[in-house]
Amino acid sequence: MRWLALAFVALIVVLQYPMWLGKGGWLQVRELDRQLAAQKEANAKLKVRNDALDADVRDLKAGVEAIEERARSELGMVKQDEVFFQLRQRPDAGRNDPDGGKPSSPGPTSLPIRPASSSTDKR
């Protein structure tokens, strides 16, 4: 009778092995769930990025403001009838600053300025 009980225990272990450790078993399903969650998170980040790029494309196709903004910031372009002033920081400015005399701004400041219209232009 003892041999029969051991045989049944061995049979149960053999039948349980695929459920826990085999292909499609509990451990593999847990690992696949972890990979699925990581992929969903990556997809969500990419969707946000794609939505932002899509909005940029729609702005560039539909409006002039987005094109003008990019032309000004990335290409340094100015409108017709604008005067462009580029202000540079004086070399002696900032010598008494607590940060060791380093200029507060990294480079020159650029300001596009439209000329004021004269009173004869008004109708």
In short:
The protein has two domains: 1-77; 79-115, no CATH class. Helices cover 55% and strands 8% of the residues.
Number of domains: 2
What's the number of helices? 3
Q: Strand content of the residues, in percent?
A: 5-15%
The major pleated sheet works out as: 2 strands, antiparallel
Shape by Cα distribution: rod-shaped
- SSE series: HHHEE
Please, what is the average pLDDT? 78
Report the span from N to C terminus: 116 Å
Helix proportion of residues, in percent?
55-70%
Unreliable segments (pLDDT under 50, ≥5 consecutive)? none
Strand order in the sheet with the most strands: 1-2
Q: How many strand elements?
A: 2
What does the radius of gyration come to? 35 Å
| Structural class estimated from helices and strands | mainly alpha
SSE topology sketch:
Elements (H helix, E strand, L loop, with lengths): L1 H19 L5 H37 L1 H12 L7 E5 L21 E5 L10
Antiparallel strand pairs: 1-2
Helix pairs in contact: 2-3
Summary keywords:
123 residues
Describe this structure in words.
With 123 residues, this protein is mainly alpha-helical. The chain folds into 2 domains: 1-77; 79-115, no CATH class. The protein has 3 helices and 2 strands; from the N terminus they run αααββ. The chain has a two-stranded antiparallel ribbon. The chain is rod-shaped and about 105 Å long.
